Amino acid sequence: MKEIKISEEFLSRMRDLLGEEEFEAYVKSFDEERLYGLRVNTLKISPEEFVKITSLKLHPVAWVNNGFYYEGEERPAKDPYYYAGLYYLQEPSAMTPAHMLPVVPGDKVLDLCAAPGGKSTELGAKLKGKGILVSNDISNSRARALLKNLELWGIENICVTSEEPRKLKSAFGSFFNKILVDAPCSGEGMFRKDADMVKSYEEHGPEYYAAIQKEIVGHAVDMLAPGGLMMYSTCTFSVCENEDIIRLILENHEDMELVKLPLFEGASDGIGLSGCLRLFPHKIKGEGHFMALLKKKSGQVPAEMSRWGSKKEKALPEELSKFLSMISKPLISSRIEIKNDCVYYLPEYFPENGGKLRYLRTGLCLGEMKKERFEPSQALAQSLKMEEFKQTISFKKEDERVIRYLKGETVFLTESEGSKKGWCLICVDGFPLGFAKGNGDTLKNKYYPGWRWQ
Ligand SMILES: C[S@@+](CC[C@H](N)C(=O)[O-])C[C@H]1O[C@@H](n2cnc3c(N)ncnc32)[C@H](O)[C@@H]1O
């Protein structure tokens, strides 16, 4: 077994859980190299197209259609396509819960423990700009990383909060028809990927997390609308954090039922509770994970939330209207809100008393009103398609100006590229990276400094 110090107590529990023969296979899996995965952003590109344009050597993840393995020596985070939000780096087993939660455009989705956004990015992609995704994490610093990932991904119909589930419940009631609870857990399934997990495991083991999980799922069930689906997932093996939590939900809520998850090659059924799904590193090409899907059969129908889209048209400042006229996709003016000079495009729905929550973002940040002008945001650039903006320039990935632009430098155009005046969307192979301001053959860099290429 590789040099990972794991307590005898944990190993003995795993032996009990798996039986002697399987336990040997599990222990052997520590000698294998960890696996590296990435998931393609279907909001921006199809997996088939991505495979054609990327220089990374990829192998498909058998059970996730937009998931791939890449090789350990590659550096996919140092790639302009990463900066264009074309993919997210994610361990393959961790792709499964969002993949198996059947989110469709128009759904009202809550990702309750969402940071740094591995699963929220996929849920947002499935919504295709319709409905709403509320992504929450109790940790403010982690919620900031979550926001960056969602903005890089190009999702416009988001709200990002940093709240206790109890408070979200009082604002939203039973509003959501899809909920993901990717619960904080003891992380037993990640020991091979991240040896530091062993240290934190020794501080807080399964019983500590089971108590937190019980509280979180209780609130999550209350936020689920009748007919709604809730996915519960962890990256740990202990029964008390997995099947026991699901059993508790079923015992305490007559209106909840387990929806059987389909098994795929290498996946295992729940332990003592059939219909759940377990992933073990000795059985699949991925780390350890657990998930269970639940449905709310009945319950109180939630009150209708405000629908900004149906409110009255509103007059916008001239500078803003002028800029927005460069965007060809339709924006509904009643959903545009200006708060402290920041301009937001709000999602379709919103809770009446939503203002009382700790929001990091309500909708897509379009930009900022400055003295007699409007400055578009990085998030807006990432949410657009190249053909949706009036003035654009696309460089080939190999063009050295791509990295220069990402580093915040001024970029110059060649004679054949012509001249650009005013706001221009800079793209790599047709995928937006950010804005620049053209003055003839010079493009003044407006890439967000906090996101620059290091
Ligand atoms: C397993 S991680 C989530 C990973 C994330 N879903 C992803 O795919 O990137 C669990 C998260 O739960 C958050 N958390 C812990 N206690 C929480 C609580 N009571 N309510 C909401 N989030 C909580 C942690 O800050 C942590 O970011």
Give a written overview of the molecule:
With 454 residues, the chain is α+β, with helices and mostly antiparallel strands. Among the domains are: 8-32 and 90-296, Vaccinia Virus protein VP39 (Rossmann fold); 386-451, Archaeosine Trna-guanine Transglycosylase, Chain: A, domain 4, CATH 2.30.130.60. It is built from 14 helices and 25 strands. The protein has helices at 8-18, 20-28, 47-53, 80-83, 96-100, 118-127, 140-153, 165-172, 196-203, 206-222, 243-252, 318-324, 378-383, 400-406; strands at 36-40, 59-60, 67-70, 87-89, 108-111, 132-136, 158-161, 176-182, 224-234, 256-259, 268-269, 277-279, 289-296, 306-307, 336-339, 342-345, 349-350, 359-362, 364-370, 373-376, 392-395, 411-412, 420-428, 431-440, 442-445. Strands 5, 6, 7, 8, 9, 10, 11, 12, 13 and 18 form a 10-stranded mixed sheet that branches. Helix 6 (118-127) packs across helix 7. It is globular and about 70 Å long. The structure holds S-adenosylmethionine. S-adenosylmethionine is lined by residues 112-119, 137-139, 142, 165, 182, 184, 212, 216.
Q: What CATH architecture of the domain at 8-32 and 90-296 would you give?
A: 3-Layer(aba) Sandwich
Mean pLDDT: 94
Number of strands: 25
Share of β-strand residues: 25-35%
State the major sheet.
Answer: 10 strands, mixed
Proportion in helices = 25-40%
Helix/strand/pairing category:
alpha+beta
**Distance linking N and C termini:** 37 Å
Please give the CATH class of the domain at 8-32 and 90-296: Alpha Beta
Which value, in Å, is the CA radius of gyration?
A: 23 Å
CATH superfamily of the domain at 8-32 and 90-296: Vaccinia Virus protein VP39
Organism: Lacrimispora amygdalina
Pfam families: Methyltr_RsmB-F (PF01189), Methyltr_RsmF_N (PF17125), Methyltranf_PUA (PF13636), RsmF_methylt_CI (PF17126)
GO biological process, one term: methylation
Family: Belongs to the class I-like SAM-binding methyltransferase superfamily. RsmB/NOP family.
